[in-house]
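Researcher: I'm preparing a figure for a lab meeting and need a structural model of a single chain. I don't have an experimental structure, so a prediction will have to do for now. The sequence is pasted below. Please return the structure as tokens so I can convert it later.
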Amino acid sequence: MRASWSRLVIAGALLAVLAVTATPPVAAQKSKPTPTRFLDNGNGTVTDNQTGLMWEKKTDNNVNDRYSWSITGTAPDGTLFTSFLATMQCTITADGSCGLAGHYDWRIPNISELQTIRDCTQPNCLDPVFGPTAAAIYWSTSADASGPQVVWLVAFPSGNLTIDKKVGSDHVRAVRGGL
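Model: Understood. Here is the structure written out token by token.
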């Protein structure tokens, strides 16, 4: 009896080993693809999947456009607001074309928002998904503590922050949404 019991144990162990080795290998777990940070929406806009902000994508036709922040020195009365933003928000319609991608809530970014797209591992410190980028400084709406006539900007060739008087003429990239 003892011999047959031993044979049963050995046979059972052998079957267990065969069952384990006969089991197909466990499928490798599929890793979730990392979502792209910036998504080109194909309509002249780029969505930042990290912040939820939607940005204007520049084209060869408008990349070099410059706008003044203020005529009076402090008020938002320059072409940045009266021409560029007014067209983006559809408050003026010289030729009936206004807004961008069906949105009319575009605005000028604050300095914190503008810094979120700064990436100095890229040419001009901005991901190419944003379209052509002028090697220049870009307006924000964030005033500097030194006075109401000074505002913060980002220099996209270097990624540096700088300040300038509002009466200057610089570049802009519109944004919508909020942090």
